[in-house]
Each structure stands twice: as structure tokens, then as C-alpha cells.
Design a protein that fits this description.
Blueprint (H helix, E strand, L loop, with lengths): L1 H35 L42 E18 L2 E21 L2 E13 L4 H10 L5 H4 L7 E6 L2 E5 L5 E4 L2 E10 L7 E10 L14 E12 L2 E11 L14 E13 L2 E10 L9 H4 L2 E11 L4 E10 L10 E10 L1
Antiparallel strand pairs: 1-2, 1-15, 2-3, 2-4, 3-6, 3-7, 4-5, 7-8, 8-9, 9-10, 10-11, 11-12, 12-13, 13-14, 14-15
Amino acid sequence: MRRIMIWINSYHRLRSSCWLSYLIGLSIVQHGGNAFCSSLMENQKVASGPIPIVNQAPIQLLFLQAMPDRAEIVPKGHGSLRLNTTITNTLLSQKAGSYKGVIDMEMIRSSLDLWYGIAPGFEIGMSLPFVYSYGGIMDHAILDVEQFFNSVRKVREEQEPDRYEYAVKKNEKAFISGKEKRCTGVGDLVLRIKGRIWDEGDRVPGLSARLAVKLPTGDTDRALGSGKVDYGLGLVLQKNIDRLTLYLNGDVIFPGDAFDQDNVPLSEFYDIMLGGEYTVKPRLSLLMQVNYVTRPFKDTGLEMLDRRILDLLLGVNYCTKHGILIQGGAVEDFFDSEDAGADITFFLNIGMYF
């Protein structure tokens, strides 16, 4: 009974914290969809997969990340708008040499993403996230699942549930730190441009190139951003084979010197996404994406900073008759990434093409 009451109370706190972003997003998308798009399926090439969810590990979110994308370009004078919302549970506690870190939190992150075709073969885009980090509601459920599969991590067994703690230190001085019992605010703004290199052929995949810049709009004192400008560039490939669409993204990210004053160097890192989308019905598709990301930190001894992350996304993509795009699913780290990134992420996206 006590656990049920904890879940009920936590649910009400969660609902009150994120209902406004959903209402705003739904209002924009519903009115826009009815006004500008009678059928999204006419423009399916620029409005379905892959699912644009970046790695939700709190430390990785401080830096620019390559958003999963397709090679198709939004036509000139048209655009795509999405509200992507995730809820992520993370529990990490490590110490090595002069470094130590604890991340014990749940995070709700809503990102407003916009793409617009500015010329034939060219589109621009932006992403602006809003972040709410707190103690969480999933700790008990995750422990129950790990116990059921007899795979409980030691840090999970020793955890005090529903606690918020976020600090990474070198020589007892924190260079990444969340404040108080929760954290709320706007993250870093990302600007993007993508251009077509060549169209997809019978055997040749479509290919586009992209460039992105992250601007330091997030508050560094609350770990909502790195406080520096990052930039990245990459290639995006896409190939359609009957009902199957394959995606391959490869990017290199150059982070700013965010922690030079703490003598914590950063270097370029790489992001690779391989995805597949299978069309079940004209308005329904299933997606699987595998994301591989290296880290900007080197030789700290902490896996949460150094170890590359592999995660698997499984999702469903549905387009309503009125042109509203709905995407839902989950992301889970796999192989040996459990001590490097987030435990579990659930997402719900809504969008429109106009």
C-alpha cells in the first residue's frame, strides 16, 4: 500500500510539471495540422522516420548531439514542426582517482523542433529544449524489473528511491552540478542546416550533408548546458526498399572548452545512427534505431564520462487522417553501456507538416 501511495503522489507531481508543454504543443500541432495539411501522407517522405531522439544521458545532453534524420529535404516553402517529449531515469555512482560522480535523477525533456525548406535542396532547422529534473517515479518499478530478471545492479540495490543528486567532481570540486532537489529551465538552442548532395536512385541511396551549431542558452549553474558553443557536421543516407526504409547517419561533434578552468579537457566525439522503418499500413510504421556515440571526455577513469554508449530505440510512427504525426516508444542502453548512460527512456512525439 505504501508503494502504491508513493506512485500516486509521484504521478500527480509529474502530471502537474509537464501538462502545460503538452497543451501548448497539441494546440499548435492540431490547429496547424487542420489549417495547413489535409493529409500528411501526401508528404510522407519528409514527415515520418527516423525518430528524432538524441541520447538522453544527462552529461551527454550538455553537448551538441546529432539528431537522427533522413536524407530527404523539406520542399521549399514548406516545413515540419514537432514537440518531442521524453522521460528518462538515470542512476550512476562512480569514483576513480581524482574523479567521482553521482547521477540519481529522473528527467522530463520537451524539445520544440522546427525544419523549413529555404531553397530547393536546402532546409534549416532549430531545436529548443525545456528540461525538468527531479527525484523521479520509476525507481521502484525499475528495481522490481531488475529483481524479476535477477540482474539488479549494486548501485540500484543501495539506492535511496526518489532522490535527486547530480554532481561530477575533480579533486572534490564540482565541474558539473545540478542544484537543490530539482532543476527546471531552458536548455541550449541548436541551429541546423542540411543540403542535398544527390537524390536516391534505383541502387544508390539518397545522400545529404548537414551542419549544426549549439548556442549556450542553458544555465551552466544548473547543468542545463555546457556554457560554450559546439558545432558538428555529418552525412545522412537513406534507401527505400519496398516497405522498408533504411537510414544511416554519421557525424563528428566539436565541443567548446567548457571545463578548461577545472583542467578537464574535451575533444571531438562521434555519433553514428543506423535505423530501419517498416511500413505496416499507409499511415502506420515500426522503427528500430541503434545509436553509437563516443564521449568528449578522455581518461578520467569514470565510465559515465569516458565510455561510449550504445542504445536501442524501438518506436511506432502513426499519422492521423488530419495530418497529425504521433510517435511513441522506448530507448534502452545495451551491451556494456549500463554504467555509462541513462537506464531507460520513454518518449512521445507529436508533429505536423505544413
